[in-house]
Specification:
The structure is a single chain. This protein is about 35% helix and about 15% strand. By secondary structure, it is α/β, with parallel strands linked by helices. It has one domain (about 5-210, about 255-290): TIM Barrel (Alpha-Beta Barrel). An eight-stranded parallel β-barrel has the order 3-4-5-6-7-8-9-10, surrounded by six helices.
């Protein structure tokens, strides 16, 4: 699989990144440890060498599984993780990083990201300069190689950039969730900041595997996802029906069509998770799909039948941030 350079660094990442929120189990149902470990290993064998996790996913459990799954190939993978909004004081950042290093079984984290801005989820407000000072210190010590942010607005990203180099932004971004394109994407293109798009398949919606009346259990995070609520869900189903002939034309799945479209966007890579090895192998085939300008325009028009009905709130779920 061809790689792309992360921001202004010398780090080479794959355009498809394996996401591991589900490995932490919290917020997900039906996840089996061994199956997720096998999914990570299958993704690596299929050419995906970049893996994204976070300390908050299952309170460190996701990081532990990533460390376990990839211990034998650490020198051939790029590991990205995140520090949560409640650990943004300088000493907390240092402590959180040490915890992540231990769980990931590594001496260096390739990309260390601020998961949510200070103040999110009722966390204490910490000046971004203090957080960035700690991250810069970790970078100088060789414990992290690059700094990224997640769920930041353009204003927050600009402020962080005043205190050090930011090489990546991780926002929610998919065919059905395109708020990043308004202000953030142009800024990232201008400043050579790589976009790591999370929920790249709309938490599975873009695979087309959920029927018109699907209901998630209350302990599944997707039960709070706005895209799965009326009237958006019906609009999404109608859009998927229109996308299906394009996927068929390219001899690919709906999900891989959506991933191919995303990877074709400026400065953008796609994070996608998997529950088992078969899913991981299938996702990896998305890099083989080549879309023409006409394809991209057609997909764009269908996408807007959903995204034109979204509000301006950048958060995909109905929980309090």
């Amino acid at each position: 699989m061809e790689t792309r350079t992360l921001g202004n660094t010398d780090i080479e990442i794959t355009p498809l990144i394996f996401g591991t929120w589900q490995a932490g189990k919290k917020g997900w149902v039906g996840i089996e440890d061994q199956a997720v470990i096998e999914a990570m290993q299958a993704a690596f064998k299929a050419g995906i060498t970049t893996f994204d996790t976070a300390e908050v996913y299952g309170d460190g459990y996701s990081e532990e599984l990533v460390g376990k799954a990839l211990a034998g190939v650490r020198d051939r993978v790029i590991l990205a993780t995140k520090v949560f909004a409640n650990h943004l004081k300088a000493d907390q950042v240092i402590e959180a990083c040490e915890g992540s290093l231990g769980r990931l079984q590594t001496e260096v984290i390739d990309l260390y990201q601020i998961h949510w801005p200070s103040g999110s989820f009722k966390s204490e407000i910490v000046p971004i300069g203090e957080t960035m000072e700690a991250l810069n210190q970790l970078k100088q010590q060789g414990k992290i190689r690059a700094i990224g942010v997640s769920n930041f607005s353009k204003t927050q990203l600009q402020e962080a950039m005043q205190y050090g180099r930011i090489d990546s932004l991780q926002p929610p971004y998919s065919l059905f969730w395109r708020g990043v394109e308004a202000e953030l994407q142009p800024y990232c293109v201008e400043h050579n900041i790589t976009i790591l798009a999370y929920s790249a398949l709309g938490q599975g919606l873009l695979t087309g595997k959920f029927g018109p009346h699907h209901q998630f259990p209350k302990d599944d995070i997707r039960s709070k996802n706005k895209l799965f609520q009326p009237p958006l869900y019906a609009k999404a189903q109608a859009a998927l029906a229109q996308l299906k002939p394009i996927a068929d034309r390219h001899h690919t799945t709906l999900g891989n069509l959506a991933l191919a479209w995303l990877m074709a966007q400026p400065q953008t890579t796609a994070i996608v998770g998997a529950r088992n090895g078969e899913q991981a192998q299938e996702n990896a085939r998305a890099v083989e799909v080549t879309l023409s300008a006409a394809d991209l325009a057609e997909i764009d028009a269908i996408s807007r039948t959903v995204t034109d009905h979204l509000d301006d709130n950048p958060v995909m779920w109905t929980f309090n941030v």
